[in-house]
## 1
Amino acid sequence: MNELRCEEVQDFYMSDLKKPTLKELNAWPHAGKSSSSSSGVSFSCPHVCLCLSLLCLTGSLLGHPQCLDYGPPFQPPLRLGFCSAYENFGCCDQERDKSIAAKYSDIMNYIGPQGHKLCGTYIRDILCQECSPYAAHLYDAENSRTPLRSLPELCFDYCSEFHLNCYSAIHLLTSDKHIQECCETNRTHFCHLLQLQDEDYCFPKVLQNSALSRSLGSVLQECGGCIQLCLAEVANGLRNPVLMAHATDQTHRAFVAEQLGLIWVFLPDGSWLKEPFLDIQSMVLATPWLGDERGFLGMAFHPKHKDNRKFYIYYSYMDKNRVEKIRISELKVLASDANKADPYSERNLLELEEPAANHNGGQLLFGVDGYLYLFTGDGGKAGDPFGKFGNAQNKSTLLGKVLRIDVDGRSPDGKPYRIPPDNPFVSDPKAQPEVYAYGVRNMWRCAVDRGDPVTKKGRGRIFCGDVGQNRFEEIDLIVKGGNYGWRAKEGFECYDKKLCHNSSLDDILPIFAYDRSVGKSVTEGFVYRGCESPNLNGLYIFGDFMNGRLTALQEDEKTNKWKKQDICIGSTTACAFPGMISSYSKFFISFAEDEAGELYFMSTSYPSAYAPRGSLYKIIDPARRAPPGKCKYKPVPVKTKSKRIPFVPRAKTVLELLNEPSTTKPPKKSFILTAATPRVSSTKAKKTPSTKIKASTVKTAPSGNGRQRVKAEAKPFKGKKVAHNSRTTPAPPLPRKKSPHLARTKKVLPKKAALAKGKLEKRRKKQL
């Protein structure tokens, strides 16, 4: 904005407008019902994932689409009858559109026939800027600390024409007496007040600029090709949280497990309960060693948990003879307290001896068929050295397998579960009947696809990330009876050449694999099927424990091939929304869905089971959200007997960083998944004094040093519910017509977490 020339410039802002306080503001999205949008992410340019021009172009194109309630724009669910220019994408739903139409009607009642002809279009356009995808910029509202302007920013030529024809209507558009007195008769003062320094962003030029408008509402990409996503911190101070689960009981609680053997309950309002849901630390085998793969590893709620109160756990333990084993058990929740498990209800389903300390598997999940799937490691050491072909290829052992059992029945031979009659090897006398698939090394996390919210396409698919030996990491789709190749193959290539050339080996190839120059320890993720970020529908997002990077895969429905796309996190331009942060802990432990289908990941800055360095983050698309109200739900209330502890964020938000005084240090680049893709850290504030945001240095996640393929446990999550505050510019009164978590542990940790990588590398070399 040019230098303001009215004496009472401060009065241009509506100081009496009630704004959400910073305490009320959080990450803009709400958890919600499954989205009805069936449009997934497309990586074809220029229509969907076009390189974001405002990051690629030089100059001052550094703003970002944002509404007056601080959230991204959306696609209105119904047509807009008045502000129809924004019916495909903008900041108004039908209710808001009708409200603006009513304002217009009231104003035009005070204007004669000639005024209708001269001023009707101007007044309509100015009022409809609340619906513009760039409304926050136009009203100088990108920073929640600044008051709203009463009029949007207009290009000088357009403003001059408006003032020339309609200056008498200014008092109908704003109730600010100082603007009326100093500017109603002074066109130059008035238009300098509304003029932007960056003419590309003033109305009406902002939407005439094809570089800004053609990619609106699409997944944002930098010129290097990485998708831009944002994060909200929802939990911290966790000790290697290995998973987050929900009970599918409409309570929208989240259950977060730490590697030590503790499970915590997080409530929809973001608070957590002081008393743990389950504490079996005395039984779980876990150590403070960096990257130790043993501990509490898996949990799944019975599909009918609401009725039978059952859930299942997977953990390491040592028996009386000091033999290391894994145990899969069934437990129940107390009838008297839905937030407390009954530790005395444990019923052992299966125990397996572990030949080594590594490769313990750990995933439990229920498929859409109602059966429990268990994912075991190959027994450990290196190269699956057990027997002639290794455990993974030996169907007579349960190690290195995907197992499937029916927990609602019992076998005739006395097993505490039933074998599903259609398991692929039930009639093979040389195979264990529990085996559903084999040839896996150490699948670290698997997930069931909920399917497209509308078409249900993809529903029931099981994705897994299988950690490689020393060359390749892979993503697999689980099929009944499938042989996933290990130890004959690693990724797409041979590992044991003798086994690999066996003509009888009919193995299932990965849908995606990458070598050690990219990452060293895959952490499987989820296919996004939530409501709040409709652009992400169908996008499979996963990470790597060692390189600290997020990656996306998108399926080509015509070829059934999967295309890789890197993800960038924390851009100070794209993520300049309340509650969004620019950095995260780099060691990815696990991914999770909440009950509404929104996506999270857990990571730590120091991968020890005793280190309270873990955090849980929610993944958010800054380009487009669901329409207001679509993702709302009403959690079923649950009586809590334990004390509620409110969530206290630690990470600085992007807006907080931008408001810090500038330093002499050059801005850091945001963390990018490809080294070739630089991150832009400058902001519109440098170019447009109208915004109160100041550029500053942004801390980012450290780049890829970390721990070698160690199955680190996931960090717990503190779910945080966000209250979304509607923010709009009210019409001026018209004249009357014709008249701590951290507190849970006091353990002293090493001062330099950077030592973690070296220790992990040494430990892995010993295992090799």
Note: The radius of gyration is 29 Å.
## 2
Amino acid sequence: MSGPRVNSFFLGNSSGVNFSIVLSPRDEETGKLQLANCSGSKRAGDWNLDVTPGTNTSKVTVSLTRTLELCLPNATECCPSPLCMVEALQVLACRGSVMLAQLLIQAEIFANSSFAGNVSENATIIPNQAFKPLGSCPCNLTAGACDVRCCCDLECSPDLQQLFSGSCFTGVFGGDVNPPFDQLCSSQSMEFTPEWFPFLCVQSSLDNTPFLGYFYHGSTSTPKVPSFKLPPQTSPGKPFTGYTEGDPIITEEDEYFTVPQRSMAGQCVGNAPVAYLHNFDVKCLTNLESYKEGLPHDVRINTGTADFIQQNVVYRIITDRGKFITESESPHAAEVLCQNVTFAEHYKFIWKDKNIEQVNVTVFLGSLCDGEILTQRFTVEFLSLRSTNGEEPFENPGYQAGKPVRAANMNASDPLGSLNIWQPAGRGLCASAAYRPVLFGVDSYSGCILEVGINEDCSLLRGNVTEKLNALIQATHIGKRDNSSYSELNDWVEIIRLDPVSSNVSTGGLKGICPDIPANLNIRIMFAKVGAVQGIPQQQILAVQISYSTVLWQFQCGLGCKNTLSFLPITASVQFIEVPAQPPIPVTRYQKIYAEFDCNQNDVCWPQLLYPLTRFYTGEPYSQCLAKGLLLAFLVLLAAVMSNPWFSKLWNR
């Protein structure tokens, strides 16, 4: 450590643990630190030890109590030299006489340097950086103190400069503000000086160096800090010009219309504004203690033309709370406090061009009791007015890559379904894992970890794993298109479910071994391009299949086999398979013959027989390749001529 305070952490339960700090002198004969015992205290010399306990982590702080000022004449309790203190400390964590943890600290602390001269009231004159260097030592960044590795800093004493004399900053930043440049006649820094250099070199003073103004950035402008307030209207009578995609929706009170949404950090934000033409479907966890009501439903909304419309609200009562209450912290008692709260809100905005024509809201209410955790659901959907009842195809009805896949539960009163995969957090346990929707065209692979005991019943384990996997698919059908109507069954495809295959493996009654555990969920979605709207392809889902892959789970024994829990990873994978909308065109006879001469499909490529003589060959210059090729052709022609019988007769004559 190089400062008067240092922090560390003790991991584990700190109840009954005694923390102490001791000075560790070195043995004069061996030079090693002497071992300490658990009989120390929380104060040793000029050092104090403070411990802030926590649940599973305790913060340990070691601080120095003495001053670090340099000694003035006839002063005591100060630092006689710049290197004020060099000591070795040991921090011990003991339970009784048993040492649980040990921390060794080597403290080398320098004295604080301060300005002791007279302060002048004259303002410092800053030179123009374009004509004169701003400072002769740019690395001198700290006033009244020595900057490490800055050898031109006049505030560094000779003793301090010896510590970093071999690693000083170089170049302009290190103080060489006027280095000789390459074009200077007296400069010999160029490795290869051309012969014409003496005729074209520059005779100039170093004060006129090109490095002048190295830190000069020209004129500056005041940055415009964005404001989180709405811009005021220039004239009260000016009408609203309408919404564009992404604009926040405004209420009658000139405020944002907000609905709880999930932030980038994964947490739910209650006052998040709704963006025009941006759909979302989020789930937020809350309990009775932290529950807060959202924006009132009697708030009127700006249509986009300075007119205001009222929300059409329909209230429904939730009778089956199993889909929303995910955990109960304590069993219900007769005196448990319960309250009527909002379980879900579904918003439908009917729009036309740049205006909002109608807002329909469905609110689901239910009873939430103390000790229960509620999973609230909020959905916002924008539908075009050109559709019939807001559910017929509009714009591009097909799926777009990256958009959530629509799901429906046709066997429930509320047909809204979900098709999700895990989004683990923390330790990756299934109990704390969140969900995220399956996105169209995005192959995904996720999973979580399930804690399993050594005495786990195999049948119960299979049922528990199957329940965790089935919780991802709260649907019976998947929408063929992005705007599939819940009232039209032909707009949906039924999910094909394949049960896990049993291998009939017997374990012989052994504990810690369970075969045929359906630990892997496989979701395969087949889609095709069935057309285009305004040049944008329409993609439609044709079929969805869900299958399971089984594994043999075996209890993993840790060190000494003292652990009673093992981990079983369960996974879910999503695969999108594109199939042609029509059968492919059969290959013609010409294409089959041409394939024999295709260099990309055959090992022998006849068109590249004379490849070195073509311009595609870049191993040598083309002129050399051409010369070698002509020489080779001449030798072949000469060999053919000399092998002819009449040439031998002519030669003999």
Note: The longest helix spans residues 622-642.
